[in-house]
Amino acid sequence: MVDFWWDRWLFDEPLAMYLGMEQLTHFLVAEFYEGDAWNEDKLLRWVPNHVVRAIEEVYFHSSVKDEFVWLSSNSGSFTITSIWECIRHRRNVSVVDSLLWSSTLPLKLSFLAWRAIRNYLLVDANLQRRGVCLPSKCYCCCNAEETVLHLFLSGPVIVEVWSHFANKFGVSMDGCGSLSSVFLTWLHSTPLASKNHIRVFFPIVICWCLWLERNDTQFRGVPCESGRVIRQVDQFMELLGTLRMLKAQHFKGDRDYVLFQFATMLAKKVQHVAIAWGKPPLGHVKLNSDASVCQERASGGSLERGVQPSQVEVDSRVLVSLLLSREVAKWPLCTVLKKIRRLLMYFSTSVVHIFREANSVADRLAVLYLRSDRIFETILDLPPAVTGAMVLDARSVPFVRTIVDNI
Ligand SMILES: [Zn+2]
Predict the structure, then answer these.
(1) How far is the CA of 159 from the centre of ligand 1 (A)?
(2) Angle at CA 379, nearest 5°, toward 374 and 380?
(3) Which pLDDT tens digit goes with each residue over 99-109?
(4) What's the CA-to-centroid distance between 124 and ligand 1, angstroms?
(5) CA of residue 189 to ligand 1 center, whole Å
(6) What letter does residue 28 receive in the DSSP assignment?
(7) Are 337 and 291 in contact (CB under 8 A)?
(8) How far is the centre of ligand 1, averaged over its atoms, from the C-alpha of 198 (Å)?
(9) Whole-number Å distance between alpha carbons of 189 and 38
């Protein structure tokens, strides 16, 4: 039931818009297909010759059901996620928020810092704002109303804690008027700091330990002391180190800090593997294919050793998984995939992934950027670079592939 003029079934836009036509007779696509072929005469009465050629390239069969292709998803299928991405309004990513969520720290610390920055914590001032009638007194200094800003930034206990750690790292916190500015000041205190840096972890851990101290004071009657908060921060960071959560890259520019002794180096395992193109079994034929994109030019190349391939090799893992999956795939890629799947089925051929090193002949053909209809009939016609690679393949000469794994 695909509308010939107004559905997008051939190009990126409907045919009526592509051809700039308005007064049109209504047709279904199926009305131009008779038996098992396109009715070329009928097509030519309505659309120009080059469009007919494009239509004839479309895989179409009356026994195959039409499928909708959802433009907004990579799989071509409708998903709630994709429609949500279409309608949502994305705001700019906050630098401060992006600092808070690190896989090195427990999530409860990130949540606390996130709530503190947004003034969502249930300190006395916020309870009062919600209508809870109570007198407010900072449990740490008994000398001010308990607000998030007082508790985490300007109270006498936290000032001592901040200045202790700021002195250790040489961070100047003059002019910090909000928790957000504290996080940014620590981040920008060295050009080498990034999201996963010790200078980002410390403010989050300090906020956490101070919150624990405040709760101990309020609910257990323990006197609030800056020294205990400092010890808790140090112990927490040492615990992270003992648990091997601290890595050397977290200490860029701060390797003289005492905690660096806990940092684990990211070791890399390097392997060199010999990779060679494999000959197909006797009597079987293999097709090697590759594509190249350079300076906005895309080109492909393939080498068929025989008449009808029983195996196809490509070095794109993504393409192989797309072909083997049942995904419709994104428009207009889905039409190309459908065509390749049809050819694979027609030849009863399997497609497998190989490493680029074993696909050197197809790779060298692809980078020649020849016309799509250029065919080399004999080996003698091939450029020397391609012939050379073929000779190496024929003798099963391996190429070396370097594999680097983080351990
Ligand atoms: Zn206080």
Answers:
(1) 10
(2) 95
(3) 999 999 999 99
(4) 12
(5) 27
(6) B
(7) no
(8) 27
(9) 69
